[in-house]
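Hello again, I could really use a second opinion on something today. I've been staring at a protein lately and its backbone has me curious. Please have a think about how the structure follows from the sequence. I owe you a coffee for this, so here goes:
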Amino acid sequence: MAQLQTERYRIEGMDCAGCARKIDTAIRRLPGIADVSVSSTAGTMTVSYSSGRNLDAQVMERTRWLGYGIEHAEDAPAHKPAHTGKEQPWWRQKRNRLTIASGLALALAFVTGQLAPQFGTAIYALAMSIGLVPVAKRALTGALAGSPFTIEMLMSIAAIGALIIGAAEEAAVVVFLFLVGELLEGVAAGRARASIRGLAKLVPDTAQREQSDGRTGIVAAEELARGDTIQVRPGDRIAADGEIISGNSSINEAPVTGESVPKNRKAGDHVYAGTVNGEGLLRVRVTNTAEDNTISRIIRLVEEAQERKAPTERFIDRFSRYYTPFILLLALLVAVLPPLVAGAGWSEWIYKGLAILLIGCPCALVISTPAAIAASLSAGARRGLLLKGGAALEVAGSLDLIAFDKTGTLTQGRPVVTDVLSVGAPEAEIMRLAAALEQGSSHPLALAIMERFDTPDDLPAVDGSRAVSGKGVAGRVDGQDVFFGSRSAALSDGTSLPDDLAQKVEHLYEQGKTVSLLRRNDEILGAIAMRDEPRSDAARGIALLRAAGIHPVMLTGDNTATAAAIAGALGMDFRAELLPQDKSRIVSELQREGRVGKVGDGINDAPALATADLGIAMGGGTDVALETADAAILHGRVGDVAALVDLSRKTMRNIWQNIAIALGLKVLFFATTILGITGLWPAILADTGATVFVTLNAMRLLAWRQTA
């Protein structure tokens, strides 16, 4: 199989799905092209072609020939979208200046027609030509490039036909309204892009970078490299992804995560570019460059996702390919059948046929789906919900079951101290002795002990500290022998366990907890229980899924006791003691009951993620998770899975609303045109007006908030 080379471009002047289809068709006709993905909402195009063919220049030349600007995506990186800084005010853009010129010419023609009626037709024809010539040129280039049935072609036929039958005034008005509609489409498309551009603007332009002599200097955020150290003052936005070296502060992560409550961050914690520092001075080591920080990655993923069409969008796209020729045929029949069959007036019915052409333009219908999907992808990304395309977004709302991994997905992924049982000493003393033995260890259970014992300065000295392989840790504390570890090791020399403590320990084991005993000399002082606990929002997240009619199931490799305890606390079914291949098999079995989503970490759950109808990576900031799954919950909240379902369902409702608006207006204007109530210039509103309505309705999704 021949190797493929992929190039990504940014397109200027592509404001509707019709433009995208025209470019797609033209580029596919080039020899050697393997695949093309175009998104009018993101203003991007990805082209794959046979390696070594060097088709890049031809792709750019063909796109410019169609009348669009084009540049390589790397010349306008994702963290600085091509539109940022380059996009002029709408009244200075070439296409919009044409609209203004057409409007002025129409106004001048009206005044001239009132003063010198004998020149009215000629003046209106001249005014019409100012707007029509560029439109007709685009229609011709589109036809030569393989797209004869474009809105520009329908517009050109209708305008020229109106001029021939003596309706020059209406022809001029129709051309002007068409250009106004295009202008409004461009403004609406710009608004859709602005939601993602707004993310890029969250990152400050400059940063305070520490120099080798210890002083700080202001540098452009783009110049920061991995390993640089920056200082972030209170109230400043953080200029790069990084790890806090020193200092602690509350960080407002709402711009990136959508979480309204600031998070306390300290040395060793990770921070995101674009978030806002609170009250403390922070020193941060840069971990990602500007091109690869969280904001840039989100922008890049959303733009690439907008190029992947949803099933509904693909259906509408295929439908429009047959719909437009059908409209041409219908307009022809309306124009010729009544005069031929019933002897009606030719001029009247040709006029109605031309109006049908304008009513039937498919722009509003074609944009109904991608506009809604683009707005949803943007809204989701701003809240840490990343999807790989419209197909994933569409599937999310139709899931019947969702299977969750346990460790790191439903739970925190690390053990915490849950219970401290005391017999021969106070709880504080038990924690002090255990922490003294565990200090300096990187074992997860040791870290849990140290996290619970938050005053390390009070720890006593330990003599002869040693790890007892697989059993625990021992040493001399305050001149006495102390051991902290497993029950079997603590009781191996015949030391007895008090009856009441033994019962409590058994109960803790039944709850799936790890229990370690603390022994001083020959006396058991107490026990400490630890377990990987559910995330703070797990119970609410599972409840939201149940309320949405989705059945949650937990799949885990842990033992049955632990799985039963966690699943019971969350109110969900479970399967335990599973291998990765078992999870994949169970997902296949669950698919007999309906559509199945799988939520996991994207690494050891890869087979199950791939098998599911929708694979969702939890905490999907890693490249591996994003490559494996169809979607990612960037910030690891279980409730965000329900939010993803909610976003999908609202999007599909919005899409069907858009389709109803587009088709409903066409049916209405078709009836009024046949009845002679409306003519040419109202007919153009059936498409341009509907396109604007549909786009504005889709943009409502930018303000999406999860309900319940």
In short: The chain has five domains: 4-83, 91-197+301-375+650-703, 206-291, 389-411+535-634, 416-531. The chain has a mean pLDDT of 83. The chain has 25 helices and 26 strands.
